Amino acid sequence: MGRPPHRLTLLCDGHLHAGLETSLVTFLDAAPRALVQPTVVHAGHAVDESFARAVEQTGTRFVRVPAGRGRFAAFRALWRELAPDIVHVHSCGVHSQALALATALRAGARILRTVHMPYSRWEHNAQALRSLPRRALQTWLLRRVEKLIAVSEADRRELLSSGICGEAQCVTVPNGIALDRFTRTNRADARARLGVLPSVPLIGAVGRLTPQKRFHLLLEAMPRVLAKRADARLVVIGTGPDEAALVEQSRRLGFAGQVRFAGHRQDVAECLPAFDVLAMPSLYESQGLVMVEALAARVPVVASDLPCFHEIDGHRGAVTFCDVTSPQALADAVLRLLGDAHAREHAGLAGNLRARHYSAEAHAAAVCALYDEHVRG
């Protein structure tokens, strides 16, 4: 007779971003229920209801713990009800959810934490350590985390160099994607979704419109692209605090008619095959899940020279790295790919092969193996 599934609580907070939400839902879809019996607990100030619905569509219970008074009692009651073997925290920082974790430890749960943002780049990491009592509590909690999980080897090296964890405590488990979602839509259908003609050279950008993504540099490069390829177009998928400024920038630079801000979309997987090139001029990333998705869809990528991006490419040539702080260098890289169908095809095939290393099933298996190690062990 097989062992019962681990009673698993996935704990997340109000600092979720689209990539983190996607990775959680993908894990829930892929994780065998014979191995885990999951519940998602959101303990933050705001809940994205579309995320809650996506979780529930996987057959997983979604629980909200509001901020404010009564949280201590709410967590104690929740752990008594759920009796989790494992509480797996998913957050951008490594110093969040102290109250939840302290009460979970008292309830006998094992704690794992996946960090979805580079340690030094997430301002809340520093904020959490500004007072001596908070620093002491977070140090105590981190020593009791069974595993601190980084989503790229570059992030793992940064966590180790920070001194907050040891070599044996910190591991790398990249997020995975549902590969079949990115191969079942053809280019013509994807372009129809976006309202783009088949013959138009199309550049794409996907992500939250924040300074981290540096889409303003892509907009600065576009006049140089259009000077050589006047028929080219840019589609930006995503929303965020920089949206109004980016729209105004495109108007000021005189190519508002050649760029479309498509907003938040639930069908990114079905839209990606429309692009001839995807641009990712990010200032920093923890992994770069959009890059994996683009490679799975056979879309060549032009990207900033980040270590985590090099890990994804794996020397396959699917990604063109350049100095994206130079609008001319970024434009030249995009133009080279737009002008060379053979290079795009080669990069697309190489990328699709590389993306298979990031399957949802592989990610779920690696995470469930950690659960076994730290509960059964």
Characterization of the model:
With 377 residues, this protein is an alpha/beta fold. It is built from 16 helices and 13 strands. The strands form 2 sheets. It has a 7-stranded parallel beta sheet, sandwiched between helices. A 6-stranded parallel beta sheet has the order 10-9-8-11-12-13, sandwiched between helices. α2 (49-57) links the parallel β2 (36-42) and β3. The chain starts with 5 loop residues before the first strand and ends with a helix.
Per CATH, the class of the largest domain reads Alpha Beta
Count the E strands: 13
The general outline is elongated
What proportion of the residues form beta strands (DSSP E)? 15-25%
Output the structural class. Answer: alpha/beta
Q: Sketch the topology as an H/E string, one letter per element.
A: EHEHEHEHEHHEHEHEHEHEHEHEHEHHH
State the helix count. 16
How far is the N terminus from the C terminus?
19 Å
**Strand order of the biggest β-sheet:** 3-2-1-4-5-6-7
Q: What name goes with the CATH superfamily of the largest domain?
A: Glycogen Phosphorylase B
- Binned, the helix content reads 40-55%
Cα gyration radius (Å): 22 Å
Stated plainly, the CATH topology of the largest domain is called Rossmann fold
What CATH architecture label of the largest domain applies?
3-Layer(aba) Sandwich
Main sheet specs: 7 strands, parallel
List keywords for this structure.
Rossmann fold, six-stranded parallel sheet, 16 helices, 2 domains, alpha/beta, 377 residues, seven-stranded parallel sheet, 13 strands
